Amino acid sequence: MLIMLLVVAVVSGALIAGAVWGLYGKLPKRLEGFLIALAGGALILSVVTELIEPSIRTSSLVLALISTAVGAIVFTGADYLIDE
């Protein structure tokens, strides 16, 4: 429980620090791109470990694959419609 609270505090602090830096600080474009790519990779890893792996354990691999693909298609379509 204590470790969970510590992780939440560190992650929340990093989120707030990133927001403040985004508002008032400037980074070189290469570093900014690297940090965004790193955050995207961390997000994908989190989705895989927290959502996809448990769905594979409780259902079949094929069903998890199809569900993930459908979710990606729906997300991409909604993003396209919002952009238009």
Shape: flat
Let me know the average pLDDT. Answer: 87
Query: What is the CA–CA distance across the termini?
Result: 45 Å
The computed structural class is mainly alpha
Low-confidence runs (pLDDT<50, min 5 residues)? none
Largest sheet properties: none
Radius of gyration: 17 Å
Strand content: under 5%
Q: How many β-strand runs?
A: 0
Helix content: over 70%
Order of helices and strands: HHH
Q: Can you count the helices? A: 3
Please tell me about this protein's structure:
The protein is mainly alpha-helical and 84 residues long. It is 90% helix and 0% strand. The chain has helices spanning 2-24, 29-58, 61-83. Helix 2 packs across helix 3 (61-83). The longest helix has 30 residues, at 29-58.
Keywords:
90% helix; 3 helices; 0% strand; mainly alpha; 84 residues; single chain
Quick description:
Helix content is about 90%, strand content about 0%. The chain is an all-alpha fold and about 80 residues long.
Q: Secondary structure elements and their pairing?
A:
Elements lengths: L1 H23 L4 H30 L2 H23 L1
